[in-house]
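TICKET #2291
ISSUE: user wants both folds in one file
ATTACHMENT 1:
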Amino acid sequence: MQPVVRILAHCLMGPGSNKNKTVFVVANEACRCLFPRSMHDVNPMAILAMRSLLRLSKTLDDEFDPTELPVTDIIIL
């Protein structure tokens, strides 16, 4: 299972993942399919890896950037 997790992580976080949205979507769907499989096999390493990839793909899919400063016309003292 480890080689599959590495390939999916590369598809989600790799340098071309931002340019090719279909690779990101397919890798995300593969993670969703493999998570129940790892739960069924009771493989703790695979469960942790799949859960981490699912959380990572959720945060990468969001447009929110916590390091970006908000732009407003209101001055807060």
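ATTACHMENT 2:
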Amino acid sequence: MNWRPTYLYEVEHVGAAKTIKKSYFDIGVQDIRSKRSYLCSALISYPTPILTELLIKYFGFLHIAQKGKETVVLREKECIAFDVPQNHAEQQADLLVAADYRGHLSHGMNRLEFYLNDLSKKATDGAAVAKVLKESPATAWVDGCNGLGAVIGNFCMDLAIEKAKTVGVGWVCAKNCTHYGIAAWYPLRAIKEGFVGISMANTSPLMTPTRAKKAAIGTNPLAVGVPAGNGHFLLDMATTAVALGKIEIQRRKGENLPAGWALDSEGLPTIDTDVALRKPSLMPLGGFELNSGYKGYGNVKKCYSRGLYNKFKPYTVGGTLFVH
């Protein structure tokens, strides 16, 4: 199916009700209450049903999809569960949609439940607004205040872009962040403005260093985007063989893991998704030492930031965004 997500779409037929079932999303359609523009969260071919009701209940926006001249809508519900402002919900939804549409299924709707859990546990503050703690013409240090990842990331990248427009370069670092989705989302914003963009972040310890038995360092993703005349250059990668979400997708599909992705609790390779997710222990980029896995382990230092942490204290996520 070739669905294109429509981020904002004007509802023309109040009370419209149609159903499209040829999708991995089992979409129920309800009447809508008013005529206005609504956010389309997503309608992408996906390997397993997604909790569309959670999207509506907790993020407070409608599902709207367009196929030819048909419009699918779901009833509007109030955003009362986690107090996520509409603007913040839209930014997070845009990122989820873009991830799935670009083929990053591990970081699209697959990540929704993760975000909702963090909101329910107050690990993420859906209403938080990032604050600039210190800045110079070319740099800034930001406190993300544990807000939604997309909201913090967009704020930081946009700030870096504005600085680059003024002095030629922008470098923004942030603390107290949360999971910010696909790293490529932020260089793409720089590319649209004609700049080279880089983003990188730390994560909780998920990578098992070469010759070790347990996870001790983050997957620490990084992305680079460079504008070009005939197709832009865009690299988005984790420093592990795969992101944790790729293993989640394999489990949803009921398939084993390829060799070289993960280890079991004894530090031995496993292809069992349940074993790999029970206590995540991802292999470095390259996999086995014979296949240069130590290079992936060494590469993690490029965006290393408190990847090792006290097991009795929650880890904190930081991000760095660079524009030139």
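RESOLUTION: both attachments delivered.
EXTRA DETAIL ON ATTACHMENT 2: Confidence is low (pLDDT under 50) at residues 1-81, 305-315.
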